[in-house]
Specification:
mainly alpha; 69% helix
Length: 121
């Protein structure tokens, strides 16, 4: 896969993630100001992983990409490798997700999108 195709695929995935994560946060808003949107679940869903299969993910996202243990992890690995995500990008998103730091997740997604947009243009 060419670098240009890889970056285009990554940009498409980032656009989907940003749009759906933003919408999920709006839908899950509560009057008390509490929001609960599991970013990794949303991320895996956008990749096409069924919710019932998410329980089969045994490792952190970086290990899933580089040493998958089962067919679900292999599918995720292929999709993320095709999109050209770096281990650092994935580790940051996963860390922010565990911390439920929605602002940092959005900031990081926007940063990646801006970087990829420049490369694709």
């Amino acid at each position: 896969m060419s670098k240009q195709n890889e970056q285009s695929k990554k940009l498409e995935l980032l656009n989907k993630v940003i749009d759906q994560y933003t919408n999920a946060k709006k839908v899950q808003y509560s009057p008390e100001g509490l929001e609960s949107c599991d970013f990794l679940t949303l991320f895996y869903t956008i990749l096409g992983i069924e919710e019932t299969d998410m329980g089969k993910i045994e490792q952190n996202i970086v290990n899933v990409v580089f040493s998958p243990k089962n067919h679900i992890e292999s599918k995720i690995s292929i999709l993320l490798n095709e999109a050209g995500f770096t281990p650092m990008e994935l580790a940051r998103l996963e860390s922010f997700s565990y911390l439920n730091d929605q602002i940092s997740i959005m900031r990081d997604l926007q940063r990646m999108k801006k970087k990829v947009s420049v490369l694709v243009a």
